[in-house]
Amino acid sequence: MNDLLQIRFTLPEDQTDACQAFLAENVPHGWQEEQPSPGLVTYCLFVEDTAAGRDLAQTVAARWPQAEVRTEEREEEDWGRAWMEFFVPLECGQRFEILPPWLANEAKAGLTPVIIEPKMAFGTGHHPTTALCLEGLAEILGNGAGWEGKHFLDLGTGSGILAIALCKLGMTGLGLDIDPLAVECARENAERNGVLDRLALAVGSIEAAAQNPPFDLIVANILSGPLIGMAPAIVSRLAPGGALVLSGILEEQAQAVAAAYEAQGLGQARFSRSGEWAALLYPGEHA
Hints:
four-stranded antiparallel beta sheet; Rossmann fold; Alpha-Beta Plaits; 14 strands; 2 domains
């Protein structure tokens, strides 16, 4: 039996935000978007050829009957070739650039490169919430001056993109994820970027992060529910005057998340948005 299932479907352009939000919840490793004609967007993604993968195709067809969902069994190496065809460098906040290994030599001057190997199970940084985090970090950290040697926590590190970006600005930190495979993926990417000596990685959630010494910066790109539930624990680990960046939040959930952190004494957040997604920034004494 073939390894993967390719799913392709086409929607009107005005459905982009809704479709991206759906795919972000169900296909964390990413997807390809093409514009076959004005006003239309074609989505192409690879999932494991299992009952769950075929259920996903059926869910898309039921949610968008006009999408003309097409499936095809493919070999696993097709997924890697597909990424090489459409993975383009991503610039965030005029400070960071996410690149795949085969484009590492094409990094733009003046930007901090973060080299990420696409994996079936983990994101590549092209999701809006990752970009929102990187843009928020760029706003708070600037060129990194004054942050060298400071300590950060990356909660829900995934492929390690955010932690690697911070290490490349001279910080040291801890990356946590509840998925052991994510931690291994982050470790590989940290080594690829030459920052493994600056980054500790561990399996776990906020409880795995000691309160002392506190963190000068915390970034958490997870979901609104966990962010609300963990607000007291996250804030208790933030140094006085420290900075906090939160994302993985749908726009309609942003006020509830902000209220949970205001209740912990952080004051009002700065909001940034991309489509249906939002990020909250608490620059602390760096405002």
